[in-house]
Design a protein that fits this description.
Blueprint: E1 4-5, E2 12-13, H1 27-31, H2 35-42, H3 48-60, H4 67-76, H5 80-93, H6 99-104, H7 111-120, H8 128-137, H9 143-167
Antiparallel strand pairs: 1-2
Helix pairs in contact: 2-3, 3-5, 4-5, 5-7, 7-9, 8-9
């Protein structure tokens, strides 16, 4: 049996409803949204697995339109596993506007979030603040974070050296 849910309040509805009987949301309007718009809205879904899935897909699709909503979600959650998923998505998207938030995650309470942030920062263009933040992370008390920071620094510096040699 197939279940249908309002995309605005997640109340169960019938297949033929054009507006939600609970919140009066316009379901027809929802149907006209792009897949990306629907994924971004799913970042506010009440079912955690849906939020994780939306983060993952937005990252895989490299959706730059999702950067701001992902950062807002990152700043508004206390769920460390979700933070890891968001950091991973932001790293895959690779938009430089996420750099300050990713650098902030190097100071997160969770060593897993700090390590993920150290890893994904190597996916962004080499910026002075990224290098400095990763250097600081090499002093982290977590071995995982230190190793992630060192690996990212190695990746960034070898890419920089490659560019210098290529341009010579």
């Amino acid at each position: 049996m197939v279940h249908y849910y309002c995309p605005f309040c997640w109340t169960e509805i019938s297949k033929d409803d054009k507006t939600c009987p609970q919140c009066c949301g316009n379901i027809k309007e929802w149907d006209e949204k792009t897949f990306t718009e629907k994924l971004i809205q799913a970042l506010n879904h009440s079912v955690h697995s849906t939020v994780y899935r939306a983060c993952y897909i937005l990252g895989e699709k490299r959706e730059r339109a999702a950067v701001k909503p992902l950062i807002e979600l990152l700043n508004g959650t206390n769920d460390y596993s979700l933070m890891e998923e968001i950091v991973e998505a932001l790293g895959k998207i690779g938009d430089e506007s996420a750099v300050p938030s990713l650098i902030d995650m190097l100071n997160n309470r969770s060593f897993l979030v700090r390590g993920k942030a150290a890893t994904v920062l190597s996916n962004l263009k080499c910026q002075k603040e990224v290098i400095e933040a990763l250097k600081m992370a090499t002093n982290d008390y977590s071995n995982y974070v230190r190793e992630s920071a060192v690996a990212s620094l190695d990746k960034l510096t070898s890419a920089s050296m490659h560019n210098i040699v290529s341009n010579a």
